[in-house]
Amino acid sequence: MDAPIIHSLLDTDLYKFTMWQAMLHNHPQTQAEYRFVCRKKPAYPLSHLLPAIERELDALCELRLRADELDFLGRMRFIKSDFVDFLRIFQFQRNFIRAWADGDDLHIVARGPQVHVMAFEIFVLAIVNQLYFRQFDAESALAEGQRRLDTKVAELKALARETALRHPFELFDFGVRRRYSADWQRHVVQTFANETPQWFKGTSNVLLAKDLGLVPIGTMAHEYFQTYQALGVVQLRNFQKAALESWVQEYRGDLGIALTDTIGMDAFLRDFDLYFAKLFDGLRHDSGDPIAWGEKALGHYTRLRIDAHTKRLVFSDGLNVPQALRLYHHFGDRTQCGFGIGTQLTNDMGLAPLSIVMKLTEANGQPVAKISDSPGKLLCDDQTFLDYLRQVFHVPSP
């Protein structure tokens, strides 16, 4: 039998830890539900993976963070000692996550205290991906993946022959959740770190950052904002401001890239006033047209009389290297830029990638929603709440 896919609790995105700490400090009593969704029909029925998934979840729930891993987290200046103490005794509880099959469909639901279930997400997605791609010919996939990786490296190296823009090109690996395999992600990240160190600036994978001496990258995801829709600490209209303010108080200047599209860029900017625009270092794009989004961001900074050269735009929505370079040529003379690439770095193997997510669906028994700026990314199980959220924030239906 193969060794477990996940062998370290660091083998996940940094923003799971940063959101985890914020929730533990501010809303540790929150109950939550996370639900796995496959957006497009795969070539191989995911339900057939159920027995292997069950074994992987059993193995995941046996893991604890080791002393060297806790030490690595504790050396990050924004990770607090009491959070490290919590992680020292943390272990996933198997009864908080359940998987079952319905025909060809796979269902996975994690339900329980948010600080005990929120970290399941990335591990579940990585497990499903790796089990799925084992069903295809590995030799041809790895050969094609290497060919494409070599092309990406060459595309980046071509930057050295161009006239430099005002701000440098910076690339990050955001590929844990949709990777072909853990070993392939490590190979890709190591290759970029070795071959293009002037442009490759880090990875969201905390384990790889630790093992390879790289900068761990990440701040917040949609679930952080969505949780504030259901906490009842403020009126719904003010949930974005409450989430941003809580983040500022938690991190005091660190981790200053704000995600903008939980209910769309326009609604976000109405809440992202001068106070927040000065406190946060920049913004992250994750849906909608990236050029239009970037222009809105720069226009917003201009109206607030903030020098855009002091801010950063991070692009992370379905990018590949050529798209990242085009965006860089458009914005690189006007503001600092970063590019987080996921699937097209760690699962570009000539095989159709899975379109899977595991998202927060409710908190404290109340529905939550992500509207975003791409209709295909809308997530909400409660149409009444979704309609109300649109009304409150003046977000039109598509």
From TrEMBL:
Its EC number is 6.3.4.21. Residues 169-396 form the Nicotinate/nicotinamide phosphoribosyltransferase domain. One of its GO terms (molecular function) is glycosyltransferase activity. The modification Phosphohistidine is found at H222. The keyword Transferase applies. GO terms for cellular component: cytosol. It catalyses: 5-phospho-alpha-D-ribose 1-diphosphate + nicotinate + ATP + H2O = nicotinate beta-D-ribonucleotide + ADP + phosphate + diphosphate. Coiled coil: none annotated. Transiently phosphorylated on a His residue during the reaction cycle. Phosphorylation strongly increases the affinity for substrates and increases the rate of nicotinate D-ribonucleotide production. Dephosphorylation regenerates the low-affinity form of the enzyme, leading to product release. The keyword Phosphoprotein applies. GO terms for biological process: NAD+ biosynthetic process via the salvage pathway. It comes from the Bacteria. Pathway: Cofactor biosynthesis; NAD(+) biosynthesis; nicotinate D-ribonucleotide from nicotinate: step 1/1. It is an enzyme of class 6 (ligase). Keywords: Glycosyltransferase, Ligase, Phosphoprotein, Pyridine nucleotide biosynthesis, Transferase. Residues 10-129 form the Nicotinate phosphoribosyltransferase N-terminal domain. Catalyzes the synthesis of beta-nicotinate D-ribonucleotide from nicotinate and 5-phospho-D-ribose 1-phosphate at the expense of ATP. Belongs to the NAPRTase family. This is Nicotinate phosphoribosyltransferase.
